[in-house]
Amino acid sequence: MWKTILRRVLLMIPQIIILSLMVFMLAKMMPGDPFTGLVTPQTDPSQLHRLRVEAGFYNPWYVQYRDWVVNMFHGNFGTSYQYHRSVASMIGERAVNTFWLALLTFVLTYLIAIPVGIIAGRYESSWKDNAIQVYTYITLAIPAFVFYLFGIWLFGYVLGWFPTSGSISVSATGMIGKVGSMLYHMILPALLAAILATTSIIQYLRSGIIDNKQEDYVRTARSKGVPERVVFSKHILRNSFLPIAAFIGNNFAVLIGGSVFTETIFSYPGLGQLFISSISSRDYSIITALVLIFGIFTLLGNLISDIILRVVDPRLRIQ
Amino acid sequence: MPDETTHLLDIQHLHTGFRVGDAFYDAVDDINLTLDKNEILAIVGESGSGKSTLATSIIGLHNPKNTRVRGTIAYNGQNLVGLDETAFNKIRGNDIGMIFQDPLSALNPLMRCGDQIAETLKYHTKLNKQERKEHVLAILERVGIPNPKLTYRQYPHELSGGMRQRIIIAIAIACKPPIIIADEPTTALDVTIQAQILDLLEDIEKETGSGIILITHDLGVVAETADRVAVMYSGQIVEEAPVNELFAHPLHPYTRSLLNSMPQLDNVEDKLHVIQGTVPSLKDMQPDGCRFAPRIPWIPASAHEAHPTMHEVGPNHYVRCTCYKTFHFQDALSSVEGGIVNVTD
Amino acid sequence: MSLIEVKHLKVHYPVRTGFWNRITSYVKAVDDVSFNIEAGQTYGLIGESGSGKSTTGKAIVGLEKVTSGQILYEGQDITKASVRKSMHYNKDVQMIFQDSLSSLNPRKRIEDIIAEPIRNFEHLAPTDEQKRVQQLLDIVGMPSDSIYKYPFEFSGGQRQRIGIARAVATHPKLIIADEPVSALDLSVQAQVLNFMKDIQQAYHISFLFISHDLGVVKHMCPDMAIMNQGRFVETGTREDIYEHPQHIYTQRLLSAIPEVDPTHRQQNRKHRQAVEKKFQSEKKDYYDQNGRVFDLQQLTEHHAAAVKPEQADLCRQEIEHDRYPDELPLRMEVE
């Protein structure tokens, strides 16, 4: 078990190297550089040249790559060309926001999806199941931005229950006040994102339960005289959770990556929003750092999924 | 038909129907059958004969939504037909143990083997966790598991097919039920393992005095293990007899045809006997008349009864319909349906 | 000359273990197996699950990568895909599977299923092709309107006949039948076995009949091999194997077949348990210290068993004795 995990972790190293190379190359291939934005009719070309030399732009690509990697190891992701601040500290501030939003979305997703999926699977073809099916079809079909804008309009403007932008109120004071304000700002985006994310989990759980109900081992359990309630919880449900468990890691990674969308629409100051604004201002040092971080999160998500699956399914445990 | 002494299990006029559209069709049609202590009763039939439906009816594992069970299954003074779930759960596992065909799919892949056996004890005994474990270890040893302590902690996929079937048997016998239903217990196993499992079942029957209902399509298995045999065709019992009697004097055309279609020592170079036509589907079964008649068309209709009943033809030997009296085989080759022999260019 | 000569066939799968996932050992699914299939004859391959019998069959059709050894067809080694292609081997050798439902594409109509091998190897006009399909359905005794139906609309026996029709479509010389009747009811099994015999006679087809059912193999195959752990433990004619089994594994297998005569039940059980006991106690005389089956020793012209070389003479005497019980004393004097 530990060996397998360690091997998977070691396998991530070449994956990360390839990822970083791709990110680096993409950044280099993009037209223009941060200094082109500074060009005015008064700019002295030699000064521009000096800036580029200082930034190492005329070094061979592998030297640039090496410098970039070495700097990253020192926690130095470079300086934002637009804000003239350390990328690491900028990302750090935003990452906290994104992390909490993703976590809340994640928790809400499973809090909604699991009971709903269980009801749909257990009472297959009942009116409850049919209603849930309609719900999943709608959430699957509706484009995310339409759904978000509708949510903002309804809960933010019409009902006025929640703020529609930002991550914290400037007037919040004290520990409790600040945490409360943060939560208050997060609830609407997290809830709306969670509702969209429940669709696949509900469907997986529902069909898992329906399939497992027909399995021979469920019949065996019934033939032992196990009460139906226990047959459901101990035999049917446990087996139906396998695919759900396998998705947990991926799901979290998807939420971090998916923050681009949610945060932009909700003007929520997280990594996603930073990413979009960096793209429009061609702030390459931030873009590369973020792409790398999103990539690493995806790899980590897969790793976590793998580990969880190994823990819950004994068939995968043997070497 | 049955004597007046009390039987372990007494099935009378059992009908089990499945819903097809709006109507129910009886897959088990008016079955009368008894099971006594210390006996292995084999129920033989091909797929679609209703033998497995009969087994699931006895242990009450049908989905009530699309099944209709009528008749009586008398056990210990109560009728199992129509028993509510709570009462039936007290009987399942405790009074009736069930052994299934495919030992891999019949075990929960996420549960340790020992826990799956202990689960039966949990709902039928007052034993505490430790006592249950000791009990399970003893049962594992009884069913011939070489290292009970290790196997207790193993998962089904870590065991061989034969070992898994022993676990299934351990689950079935954990509470020493007086009745054991074994539904094709050896079909998924190799012959050498099959022999061991059948020996084990026989030993259990001798030790505990249980009555075993052995459901199988394999006449060899029947000849090796059963005390009494009921042959099923199309939801009905067509012949019932003690095992020696059945193999020595098979009477019903279906029984005789089946025995004849087995590849055997003496017909190595010959063609095998083929029964014409196919088993009728649930919807196509005739409600009246001899259901085997369409498959022996050379026997005149007058030879069959209009409403076939079971006739006692010897001690404890019963045959359905009168067609057995005039039945004879047609030339084996001409009864091959279609095929090269009949093709003319 | 034999139709197919299998020479020292080995199919090994690597087992990867440890931290670096390196190959630490091999599963020897088929381990040095040699036999011939004669034209128009049926050769039986008997074994329990995991014995390597199916792998052997698949290796012959080319569905399994051969580790070493040769499979000679018309004098050419067809273990390479390029050779198979150049000599129409894939057309000449077809396969029938056990599970007739999963081996037929559920989304294709019977017409397309049966026509597929024809389309692969021949180019017929649509009308000619349909005629051929109809003929093939005739051969296996299926009604002509079957061509518009889908596999699930047929019973197990009918599907198995469709599988046979598909296999016969290209006029093959050899059909590998992997447990063709194991999933079928007794009466349907009889039907399919009869068909196979009919087709063999009509078209002079060879069969490699793979089965765990000793009764069925006995009925179908004049020659056969018993497989255990990827090796042949005994080969011979029907009489050799069923009347004079020499290897303990063969004896054990035979003793385990249930007999359709309840009056011998007690003797059978005693005999079976005695053989089982003998198997447990004499295992080391029939398997080497690694549990590997010995090499085959030729006992008679057509009978071979995997016994120790020094045991072979004893076996020969035993066979003689079985055949001509009266002559035994004479032979003893000679020795």
From TrEMBL, chain A:
It is a multi-pass membrane protein. One of its GO terms (cellular component) is plasma membrane. The keyword Secreted does not apply. It is found in: Cell membrane. Residues 95-305 form the ABC transmembrane type-1 domain. It comes from the Bacteria. InterPro entries: BPD_transp_1_N, MetI-like, MetI-like_sf. One of its GO terms (biological process) is transmembrane transport. Keywords: Cell membrane, Membrane, Transmembrane, Transmembrane helix, Transport. The chain crosses the membrane at residues 9-27, 99-123, 135-162, 182-205, 241-266, 286-309. Pfam families: BPD_transp_1, BPD_transp_1_N. Belongs to the binding-protein-dependent transport system permease family. NCBIfam families: Opp4B. This is Oligopeptide transport protein. It comes from Lactobacillus selangorensis. The lineage of its organism: Bacteria, Bacillati, Bacillota, Bacilli, Lactobacillales.
Automatic annotation (TrEMBL), chain B:
One of its GO terms (molecular function) is ATP hydrolysis activity. SUPFAM superfamilies: P-loop containing nucleoside triphosphate hydrolases (SSF52540). It is found in: Cell membrane. Residues 9-259 form the ABC transporter domain. It holds the Pfam family ABC_tran. The keyword Isomerase does not apply. Keywords: ATP-binding, Cell membrane, Membrane, Nucleotide-binding, Transport. SMART domains: AAA. This is Oligopeptide ABC transporter ATP-binding protein. It comes from Lactobacillus selangorensis. The lineage of its organism: Bacteria, Bacillati, Bacillota, Bacilli, Lactobacillales.
UniProtKB/TrEMBL annotation, chain C:
It comes from the Bacteria. The keyword Oxidoreductase does not apply. One of its GO terms (molecular function) is ATP binding. InterPro entries: AAA+_ATPase, ABC_transp_ATP-bind, ABC_transporter-like_ATP-bd, ABC_transporter-like_CS, Oligopep_ABC_C, P-loop_NTPase. Residues 9-254 form the ABC transporter domain. SMART domains: AAA. Keywords: ATP-binding, Nucleotide-binding, Peptide transport, Protein transport, Transport. Pfam families: ABC_tran, oligo_HPY. One of its GO terms (biological process) is transmembrane transport. CDD domains: ABC_NikE_OppD_transporters (cd03257). The keyword Signal does not apply. Belongs to the ABC transporter superfamily. This is ABC-type oligopeptide transport system protein. It comes from Lactobacillus selangorensis. The lineage of its organism: Bacteria, Bacillati, Bacillota, Bacilli, Lactobacillales.
